[in-house]
Amino acid sequence: MPDLSEELRRELERAGDAPLRLVDPETRREYVLVPAEQWRAPLSEPPAEVDLAIPEGIRLSKAAIRRALPELLASRWTRDKYVCYHRDERVGVSRDHMALLRACLRRGYPVEEFFITRIKLGAASDEIEEIDRTFVEFDEEPE
Question: C-alpha distances in angstroms, 86 versus 115, 123, 126?
């Protein structure tokens, strides 16, 4: 690996934490020099480690839905509609999951803190939690 010249070292010091742009005078090709700890691998390379943990807000929301599910299933007014929870708080019940999503976004809830699902047997189950990290659970339309 080639060593840095004194001129290049001074330029890096002036740049601080910002990337340093370099131009090859012969080819006019541009390069960006960044400290190794700031460099991120190109998207074509798989990440070294993927965090598969379900965000705590989604876990809490799913748990609240599972606790409320018997009551939600018992009512003909809520059965087969969508329900949304932000952590332990019920945001609402609606025929339109997008209305619930908009309500959460208007309130400024981060997507990793709420969960939307159709009110049906098995909604927000632990099985889905193991593979699904998203905040909306979809299924086929009710008959």
Answer: 7, 16, 18
